[in-house]
Specification:
single chain; seven-stranded mixed sheet; 8 helices; globular; binds S-adenosylmethionine
Amino acid sequence: MELINPLVQEYAEKFSSAEDVLLKEVSDFTTANHPEHHMLSGHLQGKFLEMASMMIRPRRILEIGTFTGYSALCLAKGLTDDGVLHTIELRENDAAIAKGFFDRSSYQERIVLHTGDAKDIVNKLDEVFDLVFIDADKQGYIEYFNLVFPKVRKNGFIFADNIFFHGQAIEAEPKGKNAKAIKEFNQYINERTDIEKMILTLRDGLYLIRKK
Ligand SMILES: C[S@@+](CC[C@H](N)C(=O)[O-])C[C@H]1O[C@@H](n2cnc3c(N)ncnc32)[C@H](O)[C@@H]1O
C-alpha cells in the first residue's frame, strides 16, 4: 500500500531543510551498501526526530534499534549540554557502521552505543529517560514499551516507528507476523489510560506517546 502520495513526499522534502553532510553520507552509504537500507528513517522523519528532540530538550534519550546510526544522530541534536543518548543495536556489523559515523560527529562523547539484545540491556541502564525511540524488531514492541515505561519520567515521551507496517497493520486480518505484532501493539497502546497518544501519519506511521 502506498501510504504517502509521492508528489506530497517530494514537495515536503523540497520545502524542508536539507540533511546535513554527515546524515547524507550515512544515508548514501547505507543505500549503497546495506541490503536493508529501507529501514533507515530518512530525510523527513529524521528532520521530525531532530525537531521533536529540539522541542523536548532531553537530558537522556534511549533508542532501541540503532541500525547505521541515522536516527540517533538526528535525535542527539536536541540533547541538553550535559545530555546523553543511549542507543542499542543487536547486530555487530550495523553497530560497527554506526560507531564509525558517531565517532566522526560532534556527539562522539554523548552517544553511548550498546551492542546486544535490548531486552537484556534496557534493564541494566540506570537512567530516567525524557525521550525513547522504539525502532527494533516489531514483535518486541510491547515488551520494549513495558521495559522502558518505568524508566520514563512523568511527561516524558516514547516514539514508536512503523505503526502502519506498510499499511498491513491497518488490515482487519494481517497475514505477516510483524504486521500482526504491530496491530496488537497499536491496540495495546490505544487501550492504556496512563498515557496520551497520537499517530503521526509520517512515513510508515509514528506513535507519539506521553507518559501522564
Ligand atoms: C528499523 S532498524 C532501525 C533504524 C534506525 N533507527 C534508523 O532510523 O536509521 C531496526 C534495527 O533494530 C535492530 N534490532 C532488532 N532486534 C533488536 C534487539 N532485540 N535489540 C536491539 N536491536 C535490535 C536491527 O538489527 C536493526 O538494525
